[in-house]
Each structure stands twice: as structure tokens, then as C-alpha cells.
Specification:
Shape: elongated
Helix content: 55-70%
Largest sheet: 2 strands, antiparallel
Distance between the termini: 47 Å
Strand content: 5-15%
Strand order of the largest sheet: 1-2
Oligomer: single chain
Length: about 70
């Protein structure tokens, strides 16, 4: 899937059933994200997807660990 960002086309992850979600980020965070993406030779979208995946996976793990602790 190709996404238009400003006047650039960027390639998104080839994931079936991928839906586009618009997220507003403060300008300062957008700049940091752009710098990090450039340093890593990646596009900003892939970094955002990775960050959200990590957050969600961590929250799922943490909730499971809390549940284990409550059961004991």
C-alpha cells in the first residue's frame, strides 16, 4: 500500500486488512520522529507502527502479570 505524505509517496506495510488511521502529533514530536526515521533509514509510519505495537504488547503483558498476581 502506498501512502501520500505531503508531496511524497511512502510504502506502508503490506498487511491484509490494513486500515488507515489519522493521528495528530505535536509539531515537536513530528520533528523528532522524522529525525529518528532519517537516522535509521526508515519511514516515520513504520516507526509509529512499531511503537504502537510495543505499547499494546506491553499493556497486554502487564495486565496478564497483574492478573497472575491477583490469582495467587
Amino acid at each position: 500500500m502506498l501512502l501520500v505524505r505531503g508531496n511524497r509517496l511512502t510504502r506502508s506495510l503490506s498487511v491484509p486488512n490494513l486500515k488507515v488511521m489519522e493521528v495528530s502529533l505535536p509539531i515537536e514530536l513530528q520533528a523528532k520522529l522524522a529525525r529518528l526515521a532519517a537516522q535509521q533509514g526508515r519511514d516515520s509510519n513504520s516507526l509509529v507502527v512499531e511503537a504502537v505495537e510495543r505499547l499494546v504488547d506491553y499493556d497486554v503483558w502487564f495486565a496478564a502479570e497483574v492478573e497472575k498476581g491477583l490469582v495467587k
